[in-house]
Amino acid sequence: MSTEGLSRRHLIGASGSAAVAGIVVGAAGTGALAPRGNTVTRGDDAPAAGAPGSTTPALALDAAIPFRGVHQAGIVTPAQDRLHFVALDVVTKDAAQLRELLKAWTRAAERMTAGAEAAPGGLVGGGPNRAPEDTGEAYGLPASGLTITIGYGPSLFDDRFGLASRKPVALEELPAFAGDQLDPKRSGGDLCLQACANDPQVAVHAVRNLVRLGFGIVAVRWSQLGFGRTSSTSTAQATPRNMFGFKDGTNNVKAEQLEDLAQHVWVAKDDETGGGAWMAGGSYLVARRIRMHIEVWDRTPLQEQEDIIGRDKKEGAPLGQAKEFDTLDFAKKGPDGETAIPVNAHVRLAHASQLGGVRILRRGYNFTDGSDGVGHLDAGLFFLAYMRDPGRQFVPMQRALAKADVLNEYIEHNGSAVFACPPGLADGEYWGQALFA
Amino acid sequence: MSTEGLSRRHLIGASGSAAVAGIVVGAAGTGALAPRGNTVTRGDDAPAAGAPGSTTPALALDAAIPFRGVHQAGIVTPAQDRLHFVALDVVTKDAAQLRELLKAWTRAAERMTAGAEAAPGGLVGGGPNRAPEDTGEAYGLPASGLTITIGYGPSLFDDRFGLASRKPVALEELPAFAGDQLDPKRSGGDLCLQACANDPQVAVHAVRNLVRLGFGIVAVRWSQLGFGRTSSTSTAQATPRNMFGFKDGTNNVKAEQLEDLAQHVWVAKDDETGGGAWMAGGSYLVARRIRMHIEVWDRTPLQEQEDIIGRDKKEGAPLGQAKEFDTLDFAKKGPDGETAIPVNAHVRLAHASQLGGVRILRRGYNFTDGSDGVGHLDAGLFFLAYMRDPGRQFVPMQRALAKADVLNEYIEHNGSAVFACPPGLADGEYWGQALFA
């Protein structure tokens, strides 16, 4: 197989970033990258791609990211630019059907993250009298950094599938928070699939093909497109801006901070609330659809915006400091004798030092979903965050924010869900194997 | 001013395409590119950027596209990857207010397409006690090929603003077509703004800032995000795929086909239905939100899919031919004695030869807007097409399709609008100037 035609137009060059572990650039072995499309001749019945490959100093936004590993990809993977997220309900009562679907999803997800069609038959391999095994809209596109991350909602552990005894203590529905305006049609779900990619067509294609495989077994409960990442999950990435125009996630837990990840993100085998062996190396995902009232925000004076956030707008520096990554000094006073970072500023309330050391790994996306029917854009932040135990991390953090954060005047949480995202898969393993074991 | 920091990471290299007229790469003069952000030092009070610049052989997805010219940008401009489209209603009854807004929009649009903030004050220039003059979420991002195209809906020409006598004959609301399932909340509008860019954050930022400038004067009626282009508008672009997995727009009118553009796309001064001088060099835009029932389509056999479209799925070749750009032969018979392209195939019904020579310039985008509440993704094609007279082009074409196209089993038109997009602006001219003259 030839890899000559692989597009490399999305090379990250300007930033001069060092390579980040886990990014595979270039195909070293046969079938390592099995791209869709015209430029590379690929047997439609090529085996599902594994993930060997050589790493090079350049990060290619087109490249494939290994599907298997200790942890699922899509958590500490440097946050891709675009997102398609879907929550599904299981509509069968047959646990065996569900297990077969999880197996089929594993095969398809592994193929698609390598840049191949969803199934060996591909676009036309099944012949004229069969429906194609891949829906085709990503044919010819490279892997585009696609990751597909699965999560199990609390409702999956009811009495339908024999999983009640496997339910982790940490996998509780979130409590109600002050100000919540949750829409049930944008909340919950038995399962979730998070598809992140640098080309949204690739992310949408992945979700669509997985949903298709689940026809009659699962049904879409809600889905969310994210057009731009609002978090960095690697020190090699620049901090993006959210829809309030501020840099977001400067102090995020990053892929390179292994001790912090172990402490705050990855479930350990002996975590009391973690769920035991099947969740060791996994993480809990909290998803919140946060509508941002951008029209109101946009009429707010700069100083007030900065006081609410606790950072300056242009540089993203903590108030009282000069540079984005300067340490936050909550005691430092301004010329007026008040603390430079106000007592109810968002960065103060959400900071680990104010929450007994709690941190989370944020992985959110900006969204714009049409209009709200009363003359405004329906825009905001689709908040995604990974953590070791939502009850000990997200819940106290959100309680503090819901109580005092001035930002609440400008936002509205209207969707909410929590999922247990199991660890990564070893060779030959499939999603659900450890869960159902 | 330095341009050293301009990101060039999105260079189109692999395709080796020739330069397409109208793409400005690199900044030649002071202020030619006035990018937002950190890497280039720019005075926040820099004059609104003009569009001089040198052209180079490489097409940069990051580059700025000239705002002024004979025609509006965003029509034959090589279709950018992402779209944010908004339809607005005018809520003031004061024509002078509307004219002032159109002037302010012109200034802001010209700045943003050059990569600058929406207003000279920019992110922080207005000082701490004023709301920033730019919302900030695109700060630091390059121009990203942004174009902003304005259109006027039929309802703008009622008795509110003294424009009734200016209404072009061609600017009629579209008639009802068989099968239409139009949602008024996704249809119509006094005005539209089409923002196309290669970075969706830049497109969303542009719409958001223009909407903001119109607070109290206009209100958002509906908006639509498009995640991936489904048309090429230049021979230098590869044909993308729609959500049915087929190449779309192979035979589109292209930027390089000047005679075809003159015949089918640009309004001529003496067009009986065109609207006269103020529309000469402009074009009429038809927008249709087409929900695609992808779940049903995905269960349809390959041969049936190809017969419905009239092209093969993999190559996009007309049935009976081998290559995408081979000429369609509607008479050619297959081995079974039937025409290779079935009598009711989409490409046959929509082809100029079947419609008295009618052609249109398509510029549509794939969309995915969450779920439909009954277990499916709400996905489809946001159809945008430019033409000289909808009544003589889109209407007969859509009548033919609505009557016989087998594709109708799989799609649903649920939004519709038509707009008059005036010609491009000369130096110093502003939107609405010729209209209100």
TrEMBL record, chains A, B:
<keyword id="KW-0349">Heme</keyword>
<comment type="similarity">
    <text>Belongs to the DyP-type peroxidase family.</text>
</comment>
<keyword id="KW-0479">Metal-binding</keyword>
<dbReference type="Pfam" id="PF20628">
    <property type="entry name" value="Dyp_perox_C"/>
</dbReference>
<protein>
    <recommendedName>
        <fullName>Deferrochelatase</fullName>
        <ecNumber>1.11.1.-</ecNumber>
    </recommendedName>
</protein>
<keyword id="KW-0408">Iron</keyword>
<keyword id="KW-0472">Membrane</keyword>
<dbReference type="InterPro" id="IPR006311">
    <property type="entry name" value="TAT_signal"/>
</dbReference>
<dbReference type="InterPro" id="IPR048327">
    <property type="entry name" value="Dyp_perox_N"/>
</dbReference>
<feature type="domain" description="Dyp-type peroxidase C-terminal">
    <location>
        <begin position="239"/>
        <end position="424"/>
    </location>
</feature>
<comment type="function">
    <text>Involved in the recovery of exogenous heme iron. Extracts iron from heme while preserving the protoporphyrin ring intact.</text>
</comment>
<keyword id="KW-0456">Lyase</keyword>
<dbReference type="Pfam" id="PF04261">
    <property type="entry name" value="Dyp_perox_N"/>
</dbReference>
<keyword id="KW-1133">Transmembrane helix</keyword>
<feature type="domain" description="Dyp-type peroxidase N-terminal">
    <location>
        <begin position="72"/>
        <end position="227"/>
    </location>
</feature>
<dbReference type="InterPro" id="IPR006314">
    <property type="entry name" value="Dyp_peroxidase"/>
</dbReference>
<feature type="region of interest" description="Disordered">
    <location>
        <begin position="34"/>
        <end position="54"/>
    </location>
</feature>
<keyword id="KW-0732">Signal</keyword>
<feature type="transmembrane region" description="Helical">
    <location>
        <begin position="12"/>
        <end position="34"/>
    </location>
</feature>
<keyword id="KW-0575">Peroxidase</keyword>
<dbReference type="InterPro" id="IPR011008">
    <property type="entry name" value="Dimeric_a/b-barrel"/>
</dbReference>
<keyword id="KW-0560">Oxidoreductase</keyword>
<dbReference type="InterPro" id="IPR006313">
    <property type="entry name" value="EfeB/EfeN"/>
</dbReference>
<dbReference type="InterPro" id="IPR048328">
    <property type="entry name" value="Dyp_perox_C"/>
</dbReference>
<keyword id="KW-0812">Transmembrane</keyword>
